[in-house]
Amino acid sequence: MRPRRVCAEKEAxxxxxxxxxxxxxxxxxxxxxxxxxxxxxxxxxxxEFLLEYAxxxxxxxxxxxxxxxxxxxxxxxxxxYSYQGHLYCVDGSKDTERLGRFINDDHxxxxxxxxxxxxxxxxxxxxxxxxxxxxxGEEIVFDYGDPDCPWRHEIAxxxxxxxxxxxxxxxxxxxxxxxxxxxxxxxxxxCSKCEMNNMDQQLSLFVEMLEEEEExxxxxxxxxxxxxxxxxxxxEVSETKEVQGKIEAQKAIRGKPLKKTMTEMDESANxxxxxxxxKVKTSSNKPCQRIYDKKNVCLYCEKPYAKITRHLxxxxxxxxxxxxxxxxxxxxxxxxxxxxxxxxxxxFHHNSAVLSTGKGEIIPKRQALNVSVATDYLPCxxxxxxxxxxxxxxxxxxxxxxxxxNILVRRKVQASxxxxxxxxxxxxxxxxxxxxxxxxxxxxxVVKSDxxxxxxxxxxxxxxxxxxxxxxxxxxxxxxxxxLLLVARSIDKDIVTLKDLINPAKFNTVLxxxxxxxxxxxxxxxxxVPSTALKLRHSLIKVAQIxxxxxxxxxxxxxxxxxxxxxxxxxxxxxxxxSSNALKTLYQKKWNSAQILPLAEDIRKLQKHLKYLxxxxxxxxxxxxxxxxxxxxxxVTLSQLILFNRRREGEVSRMEVxxxxxxxxxxxxxxxxxxxxxxxxxxxxxxxxxxxxxxRGRKVPxxxxxxxxxxxxxxxxxxEDAGISQANPYIFARPNYGSLENMRGCDSLKRYAKSCxxxxxxxxxxxxxxxxxxxxxxxxxxxxxxxDQLATFMGHDIYVHREFYRLPEETLQMAKVSRxxxxxxSGISKYKGQSLEDITPNINSEEGSxxxxxxxxxxxxxxxxxxxxKEKDLSEIRDLDSGKAAASHEENPKSPGQKQRGKS
Length: 904
Ligand SMILES: C[S@@+](CC[C@H](N)C(=O)[O-])C[C@H]1O[C@@H](n2cnc3c(N)ncnc32)[C@H](O)[C@@H]1O
Hints:
Elements: H1 2-18, E1 25-31, E2 35-40, E3 49-52, E4 56-59, H2 60-69, H3 72-75, E5 78-83, E6 86-91, E7 104-105, E8 112-118, E9 124-130, E10 139-142, H4 150-161, H5 163-168, H6 188-196, H7 200-215, H8 223-244, E11 250-254, H9 261-275, E12 278-280, E13 296-297, E14 304-305, H10 308-315, H11 320-326, H12 333-357, E15 360-362, E16 377-379, E17 386-388, H13 392-398, H14 410-418, H15 429-436, H16 442-449, H17 451-464, H18 468-491, H19 498-501, H20 507-517, E18 520-521, E19 526-527, H21 530-553, H22 557-590, H23 600-623, H24 627-645, H25 649-653, H26 657-661, H27 670-674, H28 678-686, E20 687-693, E21 699-705, H29 706-717, H30 745-755, H31 766-779, H32 784-794, H33 798-804, H34 809-826, H35 845-881, H36 886-890, H37 896-903
Parallel strand pairs: 7-10, 12-15
Antiparallel strand pairs: 1-2, 2-10, 3-9, 4-6, 5-6, 5-11, 8-9, 13-14, 16-17, 18-19, 20-21
Bound molecules: S-adenosylmethionine.
Residues 33-37, 76-77, 101-102, 104-106, 151 line the site of S-adenosylmethionine (SAM).
């Protein structure tokens, strides 16, 4: 067997030199899907040379250019491979008689492999060698290695639907199966030297080892046997050193250009040292030597073993899981699958302990070739192997232990698997969910493993966590502290947990970390993120208080003292080191920044636009209830409510169906009604009022005009028909993918602000609309109690309302304070005893009167023009909404909107 391997290389070189194929193959149509393939016409032994993948040898970049240029059929013949660190390509698209290019893909049961063979001039050639016995009549196939090949998914789907067959398939769930390579001393002289030195066996084994190493993976099913082989390999490695110098690391990747994965891994590795003390086991292999130093941790005795399967068989055959695996036939897929799970679980427990303590070495399923960070890995929730997180979704599709019904959409895979990682088991399910929704990165990793950060999150969750909008606050707070901890770790190697930081002796480290994290510039005393610097004070005080509580419970005087003194230091020193400069930075940022409010004209346009859309969408939803018609009306109604009530967008967006249905239905008492003016009575009749939860848990009312109320009721009535998830509590629910979230009012408002043709749509935001009403209310000269009523309705603290929602400063100074200045000029004595509003000094009587008359004229014009413009406005809205220009609308005067308007 072994000498054949070396002769096979020799044979390959002969065919390379002659530029011909062996005559034992036939090109044949295999199936409609596959097209042509190559069939063996006689029995072939494993290791035998088969065919060369012949074609034009070009550089990788030339290949990439062709890949873009070629049709899909031709591009399928581009074979990319890396050799001596460079990317190359063989273009096999030219229609020649050579057969190698017709070999099809089979990643489940390949019977051949492509290896790189160098000719006498050291030019690489891609050659297929048999890896199994191939009987006459069988198709030659190799693993293309690209997991995205479309036909593979079809096969995978078929496999999933055939559970019995599933177990029969060899265990092969590796992501990087695509990389196959061979390294060998290639010329005849070397071949014969190998034979003469009787090195063939070692050489062959060495080739096998190198293949495994560079593939970065191995079929699960082979591992048990492989372990036995390792014993021999370790001894043989030293003997093979003689030929090592001639062997080079090479890679061949079939079918498409190399991806960036390796570069990305390198980049993330650069952050590694700064990030944490957790390491990831990387391959110790040298370019020419495989080093077997990976150890798997035993699930039962929690110790690492180089030969875990043998250890399990010898020491733990009595354990249920091991016994179950051993009851299957040796070499069977099921036996290997079950043993793999036990091995993965052992490593998983070890990895969890490393992540909890923040120290140690993670054992990934496949050892990385480059340094990587722990947060690049996540465990598979089916087999518990630790995979590169970005590949996890792909592995999930193929994991032999997955449950079909549990397959998640790609973006959910990481979130669901990260829940397996260690977390304080005492934390509530609600907080676990919040953490599960975080992107899994270094910061999340710290959040999960730091008990103090989790305690803070838990407290915040207990307070308000059931309310959706607070979840983001909880997440942000925890992540802020985790980021601080990461920075502190990079400054002081003694810091591992947040608890280590809450220590008066580490107060300077805390200050340094805060400054570093928030971009403090020592030369100007300014922060780039002053708000975070301010917020961290509060978080640190809170966690110190949590520690005080813990100390009291455990009667730990030392901890109590540390926490108390830490807080004392914050009290004494935080202002001078952080707060004062952070506040200064914040205030100065606001100097000279324009306070732009929405234009009244733009608001009017938006209102009309929404009114028109409301009618159209109501009609559409009534006639054809669907997700899209429901969603359209929902967005319009949401925008109308924000606009009418000048309410915070988040408050309206999160209005619940339950709140609406349970609103107070009792009419206003008659005696109260009596006290109202006729106009006020009319308003009360026309409006529906509901109370919802506002900022800081305040109760805030929302007024629904009759038409909007109608829309809300229609939305509630048609929820089911439109396919809104029954579990979604919100009136303005997101309609897709069974979402439990609400739509965002800011998005709807933005959308319609743009499409209504406003001059400054960017100024129509819920915050600016709120400022608008508060500011304009000052112009109305409301009495204090009226102002207070308005503030209560707006959900403002009255202090905030008076202080911050006043007229923009420049207007105040120019329109109000200037009265005093003019009065001073014309003599102040005549205004004695008058308020600021009563002071009307005569600036310039002519100008004053002319401007008055202009005002008057323009008012008249406006009211006269208003009706005339109304028609034009509505038609403009229709055009804008249907995406047509105003001009084109004139050509199409009978749009549905016009008919409706005619009727009304
Ligand atoms: C290099 S060509 C192989 C020869 C090809 N069958 C032909 O008729 O020209 C690669 C293409 O063959 C097809 N192919 C290869 N393996 C396949 C498989 N297992 N199932 C379906 N199609 C396959 C795909 O279209 C792929 O792009």
